[in-house]
Specification:
Elements: H1 2-11, H2 41-50, E1 58-60, E2 71-73, H3 74-81, H4 89-126, H5 136-186, H6 191-258, H7 264-321, H8 325-334, H9 349-352
Antiparallel strand pairs: 1-2
Helix pairs in contact: 4-6, 5-6, 5-7, 6-7, 6-8, 7-8
Length: 353
């Protein structure tokens, strides 16, 4: 009941007479007359003249009789709602995307122009209409390297085939030795004959495993020389040949512009062509020097590696087929080759961690 009285009292109109006295309130049986306290007339006149300070007024978030916790100063609302708008992040994002698109377009444009010039130069060389820069000494060394690589790949293929066939032979000897040993136990009348044949096959199997270790080391070294060392040098050679083609393409372009008319636009294009030609010339000369150095070091490395590997291969094969087990083992020690034990082919799970 008290809540209904308070809400009704809060919504009632309080008439004020000209002299500031309160008028008579209408009587209500369900409503007790509440005293209404109004400020004096002078205070009301002063408030009306001066007016409220909007910067200091407050908004009460609670209802009638609410506490001061719900008071929100309007100065805070004014400062937060009337500040200058910041630039939208979408505008900055569009500028970034536009910049990236322009950059990519420039890259594609330069690539297209370069590809066109190089293709034109290549076709001209193929049909004998364009001039080509040739370093006879370097070209001879490059062709010799390619031929050497093809021959070494053939040796590597044959050595791998020998390893596979010899591995099958060793496995067959091992199985044959086990069969002879089993028959030696089950055939008393042929025990001695089966016995020494089993020992012979086991000895051949052991020597064969030693030879396989030497041949596998030979194959691994040749594979590294062919597919890593030589291939790395040939990759530099490919870069050099591409740089040579670009150099000739821009040289031809510069020569064609130099023979044309010398107006303002042509002079600008001529300066740009001169700058691009110089850039590709520097790149071509640098790669030519790199190829020459790599070919020199490759030749020295090839001689050193092959001298060691051919000596190993010869000594191991000779000792095996001569039946000289001590010399075969000494050959592996000489070249620091360690054979894997049967149980050490795969690392343990703890070693893999």
């Amino acid at each position: 009941m008290s809540d209904g009285i308070m809400s009704k009292a809060a919504t009632m109109e309080i008439p004020i007479s000209s002299n500031g006295d309160t008028g008579s309130l209408p009587e209500d049986d369900g409503l007790e007359q509440l005293p209404v306290l109004l400020p004096p007339l002078q205070d009301l006149q002063q408030v009306m003249v001066s007016g409220p300070n909007l910067n200091e007024t407050s908004i009460v978030s609670g209802g009638y009789g609410g506490t001061a916790e719900g008071i929100i100063p309007t100065s805070t609302i004014k400062g937060s709602g009337l500040h200058q708008p910041h630039p939208s992040p979408a505008v900055g994002g569009e500028e970034v995307v536009r910049g990236i698109a322009v950059e990519k377009f420039d890259i594609v444009k330069k690539w297209g122009i370069n590809t066109y010039k190089c293709t034109k130069q290549l076709i001209s060389e193929r049909f004998g209409r364009g001039s080509r820069t040739v370093d006879l000494e370097l070209e001879t060394q490059i062709e010799l390297l390619r031929e050497t690589k093809r021959k070494y790949e053939c040796v590597l293929q044959l050595a791998r085939a020998l390893t596979n066939h010899f591995y099958s032979l060793v496995q067959t000897q091992h199985a044959l030795g086990d069969a002879f040993a089993d028959l030696s136990q089950k055939s008393p009348e042929l025990q001695e004959e089966f016995g020494y044949n089993a020992e012979t096959q086991k000895l051949l199997c052991k020597n064969g495993e030693t030879l396989l270790g030497a041949v596998n080391f030979f194959v691994s070294s040749i594979n590294t020389l062919v597919n890593k060392t030589m291939e790395d040098t040939l990759m530099t050679v490919k870069q050099y040949e591409t740089a040579r083609l670009e150099y000739d393409a821009y040289r031809t372009d510069l020569e064609e512009l130099s023979m044309g008319p010398r107006d303002a636009s042509t002079l600008c294009r001529l300066d740009a062509a001169q700058s691009q030609f110089q850039s590709h010339k520097d790149k071509y000369e640098k790669l030519r020097a790199d190829v020459a150095i790599k070919l020199k070091f490759l030749e020295e490395n090839k001689i050193k590696v092959m001298h060691k590997q051919l000596l190993l291969f010869h000594n191991a094969i000779s000792a095996y087929f001569a039946g000289n087990q001590q010399q075969l083992e000494q050959t592996l020690k000489q070249f620091n080759i360690k054979l894997k034990t049967p149980g050490a082919e795969k690392p343990s799970w703890l070693e893999e961690q």
